[in-house]
Write a structure and sequence with these properties.
Layout: H1 2-6, E1 10-12, E2 22-24, E3 28-31, H2 41-49, E4 53-56, H3 60-68, H4 77-88, E5 92-99, E6 102-112, E7 115-123, H5 128-143, E8 147-151, H6 155-159, E9 163-166, H7 167-178
Parallel strand pairs: 7-8
Antiparallel strand pairs: 1-2, 3-8, 3-9, 4-5, 5-6, 6-7
């Protein structure tokens, strides 16, 4: 799995009950330039309003299960187990948004060198995944990451600053990022979000 990510390939499944995994190497890759993350006025207001807590790597299983618990999903039981192993090895991380009702949303991914491979995010409450993404970008910047791979782009991600780049350009960025070091835990959990 780690070798695949380092080569620019990522795993998927056809669904939660499908035991097979296939490997994806798209011609155009989604990336988030870390200095171009767009915070809308409404998200900025939501961040300032508060009423939520950011936690890091405290409920990794809960975040992955939250991401997998929707239709359709690309996360099967084998991938759930693989991500747990990568988390135990310190390579897979989660950022969680909690409110008074518990886990409201989150995002998880894999860190290799200065590359972060964003796998999935979920939201149980309005704006929880946007909050998670904003805090994740802040964390990646502070930790010295140079590549935030989103694999694909959606209209939602594009509105926040993500873009597609050709596979060859992605591979160049990945190659450089893998030779550098970064620290996902460089910020304390309660570090204020600077926008």
């Amino acid at each position: 799995m780690v070798r695949a990510y380092a080569a620019g390939i990522f795993p998927m499944s056809e669904g939660s009950d499908d035991p097979d995994i296939f490997w994806v190497d798209p011609q155009r890759r989604g990336v988030f330039p870390l200095d171009e993350f767009h915070v809308s006025r409404s998200l900025r207001r939501r961040i300032r309003k508060g009423g939520y807590e950011v936690r890091v790597n405290r409920d990794f299983a809960g975040v992955v299960e939250g991401c997998a618990n929707r239709k359709p999903t690309w996360i099967n039981h084998e991938l759930l187990a693989c991500y747990q192993v990568l988390h135990a090895q310190g390579l897979a991380h989660s950022l969680e948004i909690h409110d008074e009702a518990g886990l409201a949303g989150g995002v998880f991914g894999i860190a290799l060198g200065a590359a972060f491979f964003g796998e999935s995010m979920f939201s149980r409450r309005t704006d929880a995944s946007k909050l998670a993404l904003a805090h994740l970008v802040h964390r990646l910047r502070a930790g010295g990451f140079t590549l935030f791979d989103t694999q694909f782009v959606t209209d939602h991600l594009i509105s926040l600053g993500a873009r597609e780049i050709p596979r060859s350009r992605y591979r160049e960025q990945l190659s450089r990022a893998l030779t550098r070091t970064a620290d996902f835990n460089a910020l304390p959990e309660d570090a204020p979000l600077t926008l």
